[in-house]
């Protein structure tokens, strides 16, 4: 995997990643049995593949990932593709992906593309964490704002 990115915090603190142009930053932490990846910035064609690869590189069994998109200011089709790629990788490992606190822009894009019917979308981080306590197939409905 070739990533032209800068990795900060290789110590015991939370891992952090940003692309060289500082278009997007990702901070990750492990909470209970889940990986929580907090994204901030623009999720577009320039950063979508390294973003996907970075998030998946931190995942671990039981493959429960929360993407917190509260601070994502832009997302194009490649950004959506990165999310779908994460979702597919997690599903093949019998894990789960929850999209937490999507920004207004991300929420509209997920709704317009119908991806909110495939991803579990959570309005809060606490709600997202509770989704992993439920058996597969009962991980809740999308939380929509109209």
From TrEMBL:
InterPro entries reported for this sequence: Anti-sigma_ant (IPR003658), STAS_dom (IPR002645), STAS_dom_sf (IPR036513)
Alphabetized PROSITE patterns for the sequence: STAS (PS50801)
Residue ranges constituting the STAS domain according to the UniProt record: 24-132
Cross-referenced Gene3D superfamilies: STAS domain (3.30.750.24)
NCBIfam families reported for this sequence: ant_ant_sig
Family recorded in the similarity comment: Belongs to the anti-sigma-factor antagonist family.
Protein name listed in UniProt: Anti-sigma factor antagonist
Species this protein is from: Actinomadura graeca
């Amino acid at each position: 995997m070739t990533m032209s990115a800068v990795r900060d915090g290789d110590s015991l603190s939370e891992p952090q990643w940003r692309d060289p142009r500082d278009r997007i930053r990702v901070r990750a932490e492990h909470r209970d049995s889940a990986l929580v990846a907090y994204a901030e910035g623009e999720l577009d064609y320039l950063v979508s593949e390294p973003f996907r690869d970075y998030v998946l590189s931190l995942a671990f069994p039981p493959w429960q990932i929360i993407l917190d998109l509260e601070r994502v200011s832009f997302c194009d089709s490649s950004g959506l593709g990165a999310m779908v790629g994460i979702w597919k990788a997690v599903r093949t490992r019998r894990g789960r992906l929850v999209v937490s606190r999507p920004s207004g822009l991300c929420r509209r894009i997920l709704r317009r593309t119908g991806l909110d019917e495939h991803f579990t979308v959570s309005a809060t981080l606490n709600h997202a964490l509770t989704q992993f306590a439920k058996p597969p197939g009962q991980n809740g409905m999308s939380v929509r704002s109209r």
